Amino acid sequence: MTLELTLQPTPVALAPGVATRVPVQLHNRNVAPITVRVGVARGRASGWASVEPPDVVVGAGDTETVDVVLAPPADQPPSASMVPFTVQATEHSTGEPAGFTTGLLTVAVPIPVVGTMVERPRATTTYDLTLTNEGPAAAPVRIKAELDPPAGTISAAPQAVRLEPGESVTVVIKAKPSRPFMGTPRPFFVVAAILDADDPDRPPLLTRTARGKRKPRVATWAAATTAIVLALGATAAVAFSGLRIPLPGGRRDTPAAKAPAPAAVTVARPYALIDVFPHKGDDGGRGAAEAARRKLADAGMPVKLVDSLQSNDLADQGTGFWVLLQDGFAGVEAAQQYCTQWKPVAPKCTVTP
């Protein structure tokens, strides 16, 4: 398969009459871009599933994301067990399969809990979260409080409660975000997620967010005064020591000799394409490519690592790629035998004639 599709590992929890978006990543393992149409295969969930956008172009070595929109009807009964669904991609021009992935979903009855969160007037970083059960049945819930950014401490009391029909409960959330040493007040957010106590894998029933500011330990004026004093002290030290500070343009270093351009790498056809790593990250993707090469070499597989920017025989769209391959074959049949032989350790191996 040309594309590698990835869904979230946990089951998707749905509520009748509510649309839920599930992201799906599409990674192109080939050295050429591909245009595909993405959809949900026929099954129990395909009648109320769609993909946005349905058509997508994935560049060579790139990753794109689409959303699977799952919208069970309002009269959809709860599922007694997990329901599998398959997301598949087909080539737009030929209709040939390009990749697929399978996930699980469940349909549960929604719990009608509503809530508000406000800061106490004279109690900084303390918040009252009021929850109300508007449904006809009891609702056991858990409260999970977090800071964003996650620097400091936060607590919620009580952390779990059983709301009877029509009952309201106030949860006290106390936050203590980290204070900046100096500068301007730093904003922070308090995020409270209300969870179904009987189903820990279910998405939050609702989420409430409050915003605050944390003052620095040292005021801006004090920091500026300290900086001026230090600057004056440093200037006086230089004056009394007689140290001469070189001025810009006072010295011209001899320019270093330019390194010779690396020689072009020739790739003979046919060759076996094993894997592709785009030039991304701090090391330009070299680390991941080298790790994959060493793993294959340790298994005894002969393989070459080539920078597409140093070869006239490989595609190098965008910023280029690190390509794991093997060439020097007498013909396509010999290259195919190579891929077949090493399929257990290199399942992506394909022949480029």
Task: Describe the protein in words.
With 353 residues, this protein is mainly beta. The chain has three domains: 3-107, Immunoglobulin-like, CATH 2.60.40.10; 113-214, Immunoglobulin-like (Sandwich); 271-352, Alpha-Beta Plaits. It has helices at residues 220-241, 286-298, 332-341; strands spanning 3-6, 12-14, 20-28, 34-40, 49-52, 55-58, 63-70, 83-91, 97-107, 113-119, 126-133, 139-148, 152-157, 160-163, 168-177, 186-196, 206-214, 271-278, 304-307, 321-326, 350-352. A five-stranded mixed beta sheet has the order 2-9-8-4-6, with no helix packed on it. It has a four-stranded antiparallel beta sheet with strand order 1-3-7-5, with no helix packed on it. Strand 10 (113-119) and strand 11 form a beta hairpin. It is flat, with a radius of gyration of 30 Å.
Summarize the structure.
The protein is mainly beta. It is built from three helices and 21 strands.
Give short descriptive properties of this protein.
353 residues; mainly beta; Immunoglobulin-like; Alpha-Beta Plaits; 3 domains; 5-stranded mixed beta sheet
Secondary-structure map with pairings?
Layout (H helix, E strand, L loop, with lengths): L2 E4 L5 E3 L5 E9 L5 E7 L8 E4 L2 E4 L4 E8 L12 E9 L5 E11 L5 E7 L6 E8 L5 E10 L3 E6 L2 E4 L4 E10 L8 E11 L9 E9 L5 H22 L29 E8 L7 H13 L5 E4 L13 E6 L5 H10 L8 E3 L1
Parallel strand pairs: 2-9
Antiparallel strand pairs: 1-3, 3-7, 4-6, 4-8, 5-7, 8-9, 10-11, 11-15, 12-14, 12-16, 13-15, 16-17, 18-20, 18-21, 19-20
